[in-house]
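The material for today's practical consists of a large collection of protein records. There is nothing in a record beyond a sequence line and a structure line. Backbone structure tokens are a discrete shorthand for how the chain folds in space. Nothing more is needed to start thinking about how sequence determines fold. As an example, a complete record with its sequence and its structure tokens follows.
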Amino acid sequence: MRDIPIDEVDHLDRAVVAIRTDYPPGHRILPHRHRRAQFLYSATGSMRVETGDGTWTIPTRRAVLVPPETVHQVFTTTVSTRSLYIEPKAVPWFPRRCQVVEVSALLRELLNEAVGVPELYTPRGRDAAVIGLTLHEIRRAAPVHLDLPLPKHDRLRALCESFLDAPDIHDPAGAWAARLHVSERTLNRLFTTETGMGFARWRQRACVLHSLSLLSDGLPIAGIAASLGYESPAAFSTMFTRLLGTSPRDYRAASSL
């Protein structure tokens, strides 16, 4: 199925409903929830999924597992997605909070097949086998830690969300503290309490995760580094490697396989 809202087909008596959807650049899907679990795959482009306690970056050829009844919103580039909406009883192993996962070459092909099966596929036969094997491969998918915690403190969260729209590695803690009418020490204490990490570490991780969508879009590494405020591509690459365990160049190469 293509570009069909899940609400129109959620009632179908099948464990899995598979839908392909294409989104324009800069699209935002407002906060919502699904009765079913969702496997959301970015075939092209990239996305960011945000919930009450964090945000998950989904580069090209990665996916995110969204547990049933999880309120979330989605921010996209020019994206083509493959979504599987799955009856909760069919995936008791699903995580309790969102999780980004790798998508193997086999799983990519299965997802492309799954969105082409009939809505009411025969419970036995090839289509059901494709769906069943897809679920097996999803369960085997390796998790990737591309999440960033978000605070519940309203004013601090608003500043974090604004930062995510235009991250800058040199955005000063003093400016954040001034907006909150607190000291820098209090700001760091608040960040640690709310997110589990200090301001500087959170800022670094936010910048690196933001760069993943730019890498997926094929932008030059030097340009990405400059847009994030790094003094040089080498400084950006050092921080990227420190946080993700691989260089931006190697990450992009691996993502294109």
